[in-house]
Amino acid sequence: MDLLTMTWRDVGFMHWPVEPDIVQTTLPDGLAVDTYDGQAWLSVVPFQMADIRPRGSPIGRSFGELNLRTYVVADGTPGVYFYNLDADDRLSVTLARRLFQLSYYRASMQVRPDGDSVEFRSRRTSSRAPPADFHATYEPTEPPSTPEPGSVESFLVERYRFYAASDDG
Q1: Coil, strand or helix at 91
Q2: How much is the pLDDT for 118?
Q3: pTM for the complete prediction?
Q4: Of the residues 11, 20, 111, 169, which has the maximum number of CB atoms within 10 A of its CB?
Q5: Could you tell me if 161 and 138 are in contact, meaning their C-beta atoms sit under 8 angstroms apart?
Q6: pLDDT tens for residues 38-54?
Q7: Contact 70, 36 (CB under 8 A)
Q8: Among 127, 130, 124, 24, which residue's Cα sits nearest to residue 66?
Q9: What is the pLDDT of residue 28?
């Protein structure tokens, strides 16, 4: 049963291939780097979390979010490992940290859509993690579509399990 409903808007998926051995050294025990054509991948994903709310609630919250992730396998199941997740909403950060043990941090964010492009700015304000700034302007490179099975696009987005280290490791 889904407890929350939400919509992602103004999403940017930015991906870089990285040597798998380098990524593996950054992962907690129990996670193995997943590769596509011999490459590991790091991704930065900025977006506007829109109308997140408990199922049945008439009112939701909207805020900017930014995550840094890589792609892993645990117990034979592919997933996403979040190095960190920054969000511009104190309540959501607190709840995600307490309920899901996710490494969320407070940040000040501006999401400015302008036609097809989006300007996204983030500055981490949390004292729990090192400072981090991000600024990008992005736009679609092609119309929305369902990724072809076996494609790099499918490898990067068709993941339904997530992992993150807690503050104590």
Answers
A1: helix
A2: 98
A3: 0.90
A4: 111
A5: no
A6: 999 999 999 999 988 88
A7: no
A8: 124
A9: 95
The answer to whether 46 touches 12, Cβ cutoff 8 Å, is yes
* Per-residue pLDDT tens digits for 33-42: 999 999 999 9
3-state SS, residue 152: helix
User: Is 32 within 8 Å of 24 (Cβ atoms)?
Assistant: yes
**For 106-133, how does the pLDDT look when each residue is reduced to its tens digit (9 = 90+)?**
999 999 999 999 999 999 999 989 999 9
User: Which tokens is 76 given?
Assistant: 């034979």
Residue 57 identity: S
Helices (H), strands (E): how many in the chain? 3, 10
Element (H, E) at 95: helix 90-100
In order, the DSSP letters of 96-117 are HHHHH---EEEEEEEEEEETTE
- Say which residues have a Cβ less than 8 Å from residue 66's Cβ, sequence separation at least 6: 44, 45, 46, 47, 85, 86, 87, 107, 109, 120, 122, 134
